[in-house]
Amino acid sequence: MELKKDSLFSAPIERLGDWTFDEKVADVFPDMIKRSVPGYSNIISMIGMLAKRFVQHDSNIYDLGCSLGAATLSIRRNIEQENCTIYAVDNSSAMVERCQKHLSGYKANTPVNVLCADINDIEMHNASMVVLNFTLQFLTPDDRQRILTKIYQALNPNGILVLSEKLSFNDDLINDLLFDMHYDFKRANGYSELEISQKRSMLENVMITDTLDIHKSRLNQAGFKHINQWFQCFNFGSIIAIK
């Protein structure tokens, strides 16, 4: 995949508006995510490792909020079981179009159905693995509990949910430190103060972060009993929940 540089916010934008995963974002998304999310490539690789352990034969796998299909591709490369199907779902038509092209470039035995849909609306069943990779944070707080409960009900015994999120922290000193370190990470990757500020302004109304305790509480309420954080870099983390 061509890595087109993200320069969407390098010049002042008069009316920023709210963030959307539109054609322009999809066009530079690989570079954007690499330079904006610390540990992203590690999480993608480890999702594949988890797929090797948890995907069951004759089952479904759901990548909810799949964007360009990085997690889907990692899962498909590592599936060793037979008769599995992956459903990659995103509500951005621009992302879905590119995801389909991306996945078509790699041959594999496991079929992938790429769907342009709201993840709240899709039916899930017979699932051995579900991935929410930086997706839940873009849902309304009310929808977050509903989708987690829906996932739990769709999972087979010993099925796994991988939930990756940008986190907030109750300790103000720690919260400020980790958020500032994230901005240092973006500066080190070539983003200017203007780019950081404009993107932050566009995201603040559409991406509401939660603490780790809130995530664990929701997962418990959904029915999960085996929950733990397995990755963190600054204010970005990933949780596994096993049915």
UniProtKB/TrEMBL annotation:
It is an enzyme of class 2 (transferase). CDD domains: AdoMet_MTases. It catalyses: prephenate + S-adenosyl-L-methionine = carboxy-S-adenosyl-L-methionine + 3-phenylpyruvate + H2O. Signal peptide: none annotated. The keyword DNA repair does not apply. Pfam families: Methyltransf_25. It comes from the Bacteria. S-adenosyl-L-methionine binds at Y40, G65, C66, S67, D90, N91, D118, I119, N133, R200. The keyword Hydrolase does not apply. Residues 61-159 form the Methyltransferase domain. Its EC number is 2.1.3.-. Keywords: S-adenosyl-L-methionine, Transferase. Catalyzes the conversion of S-adenosyl-L-methionine (SAM) to carboxy-S-adenosyl-L-methionine (Cx-SAM). Belongs to the class I-like SAM-binding methyltransferase superfamily. Cx-SAM synthase family. Homodimer. This is Carboxy-S-adenosyl-L-methionine synthase. It comes from Orbus sasakiae. The lineage of its organism: Bacteria, Pseudomonadati, Pseudomonadota, Gammaproteobacteria, Orbales.
